[in-house]
Amino acid sequence: MKKFLLGTVTALALVGATLSATAETTLRVTLQLPLKHHLGQNMLDFKKEVESKSGGDLKIEIFPSAQLYKDKEVPQAVSSGAVEMGIASLARFAGTAPAVDIFYVPFMFDSPSKVKAATAPGSAIRKGLDGAILKTGARILWWQAFGSAIVLSKNPAIKLPADMKGKKVRVFGKTLGDTVNALGGAPTLMSGSKQFLAYQRGTVDAGMTGITAVKSRKLYEVMDNLTLTRHADIEFVVVINDKVWEDLSDKNKAIISAAALRVEKELRDKMSAIEASALEDVSSKMKVIDLTREERAEWKAATKPVVDAFIKRSGDIGAAMVKAAGELK
User: What's the pTM value of the predicted model, to 2 decimals?
Assistant: First the structure.
């Protein structure tokens, strides 16, 4: 009888352990940047809140520095269910949702207030893009502010549009490639994680990236100049496989949504300070070139044809995005 009771207790313990393990849902997240980057810190903040509020029902497992997938692979990996969640540049969804490139049309959002209005949850631009990406099988949980696009170069520095002529330039999206073409350069589409070696080896002469990436990826070690063109707004998105999302309980969906909304707002609100700090840090390691109002006007004029190319590629939804962007204050 004693053996029977012990056996029963052991069996019940095993069943309990099995049920506990079954109840826990692990969501793996692929991130191309290191955890110390502000996108990584933003995800860690999200992880902490979700795991705490779910009481252990949800576990967030982060794989930084492109350990699982490079940024160009993230949309397919998430939509196919190969990984539950991922973080990628908005531009990486342009293959299936061309209108996302509205943020990379040069000088479309030429002030912080316009960026904030365009990226606000519920804005016309945001609704349209979130819906377009959902059709691919990946649901956007929140947007991550990355900062302004700038141009890196070795000597001689790139300051005016004419300086781009004949240069091989790293880009991270089709519309940025159109920008380089409009300036007489040759665009090379390349993942962020490959930049350092490309610059070091001279595979490309120049590159477009964000200020914070220059610091986190130590690009100042292989490039001489940083030109503050601020010609585009770089946005990243955190996506989850839509089937995985639908399988979550309403309680866990609410926990994730609340955490996502909070960390998105907090990052957006402090983005200017993050960017200023990164710029101050790299300015001691490389030459930083700001543009005068007249020089910026030259860049705007030289890249104006990119708008028409964007509308042609993205169709009616792209035209609607350009119209909506033009109405922002």
Answer: 0.85
